[in-house]
Design goal:
The chain is of the alpha+beta class. It has helices spanning 12-52, 54-62, 67-77, 81-94, 99-102, 106-122, 128-147, 191-194, 352-363; strands at residues 162-166, 172-180, 184-189, 205-211, 217-229, 235-240, 245-247, 256-269, 280-282, 287-295, 298-303, 312-316, 325-335, 341-349. Helix content is 36%, strand content 29%.
């Protein structure tokens, strides 16, 4: 029997000719895919560049605020639903441009809220609680802006900033920054400090604190280089720069400095108080004092009386338009260079109406 080899499969040349069209199709498909991919990449880059362009940014800045903008701000900064509600109402009544871009300047934020306050007041949109929430939200936004502008070096301290020198005894004395050079900065110091044992020695490392325009407070330790007397006869302290600044824990309320007469009285707890009555009894004897700063959470009063810490106190602020006695506790006392005593008071019992009145004083709004 004979067998004919290869009679059923064809030659290798015929096989290559059969697969050649398949390879050509694959190459064509690959080329088409590459072209599509290239076009997609070009389109993507154009969109990416557009979203980074000044044209797009200007369009975003100039459009009206949407609720999704409020949601983004709330998510990024841990705002409460109460804060979001107030911020959305502020944006709606003012028809303001994109709030995300306003949230880079406290001047613009304050102008926005001042305008909203006037509109909401004229339209009777405020309840006492909503007004309180309004100011709470405003202060939170101020702190958000301030956090984006942290001071990293004493070289960034603007002239005319008040820098407080902290003595070893914990007393604070205000110095004013008058120059800020590359290698050092200069503060003007009061005569009574220069001519007293309180003056820190040259080349010693001393503690200072200051507050920025946006409301952040910083502590620092740096070295005093030397003293100098300016042409106008005022004494100056030359201080070396430092990058070691420590941001202090934030207050819960914005504080403002005042010089206003006030009264205060001693207070004791009421042992027979019921839920409908005050927990405190205020003495009928009042003493005169001077209000030096205030916030919705507390105040500082100057007095000549030797009052101790942790005592209850009733604060009477008739000149501020508050007709109730605010109950507080003296958290700290500090002897001033003038010989007076500064009482740092935390409020314990205060009505929401009185708190709102203080907010309007601090922000300089009309109640």
């Amino acid at each position: 029997m004979f067998f004919l080899l290869g009679s059923g499969s064809g030659s290798p040349i015929e096989a290559r000719q059969t697969h050649a069209p398949d390879i050509a199709i694959i190459l064509i498909l690959l080329i088409i895919f590459a072209v599509i991919l290239g076009i997609a990449f070009i389109v993507f880059m154009r969109f990416k560049n557009y979203y980074k362009s000044e044209k797009y940014l200007e369009k975003e800045r100039s459009r009206k605020t949407k609720y999704k903008d409020i949601q983004k701000i709330a998510k990024d900064n841990n705002l409460t639903s109460q804060d979001s509600s107030i911020l959305w109402e502020v944006c709606r009544v003012t028809e303001c441009n994109n709030i995300i871009y306003l949230l880079k300047s406290n001047e613009e934020i304050n102008e926005l809220f001042r305008t909203a306050y006037q509109i909401m007041k004229e339209k009777n949109l405020f309840t006492p609680q909503k007004m309180n929430n309004f100011f709470v939200c405003l202060f939170k936004l101020e702190l958000i802006v301030a956090q984006t502008k942290k001071v990293l070096s004493t070289r960034q301290i603007p002239e005319q900033t008040v820098l407080f020198y902290i003595s070893p005894e914990g007393e604070q004395y205000p110095f004013t920054v008058v120059q800020n050079q590359k290698d050092f900065f200069v503060v003007e110091i009061p005569d009574f400090i220069y001519n007293s044992p309180r003056k820190p020695e040259k080349l010693t490392r001393s503690r200072f604190t200051f507050k920025t325009h946006d409301g952040l407070s910083y502590n620092l330790v740096t070295r005093i280089i030397r003293y100098n007397q300016a042409n106008d006869g005022k004494y100056q302290m030359i201080i070396s720069h430092t990058d070691q600044l420590e941001s202090q824990a934030q207050r819960h309320f914005k504080r403002e400095f005042f010089e206003m007469q006030c009264n205060f009285a001693s207070v004791k707890e009421n042992p027979d108080s019921k839920k409908s009555e005050s927990k405190y009894i205020v003495s009928e004897t009042e003493y005169e004092g001077k209000l030096s700063n205030i916030s919705a959470g507390g105040c500082c009063i100057q007095t000549t009386l030797p009052i101790k810490e942790n005592q209850l106190i009733g604060v009477i602020l008739l000149d501020a338009g508050i007709d109730e006695t605010i109950i507080g506790i003296i958290r700290k006392t500090r002897k001033l260079p003038t010989g007076m005593l500064a009482l740092h008071i935390q409020f314990l019992e205060i009505s929401i109406e009185a708190r709102n009145r203080i907010y309007t004083l601090v922000y300089k709004y009309e109640l």
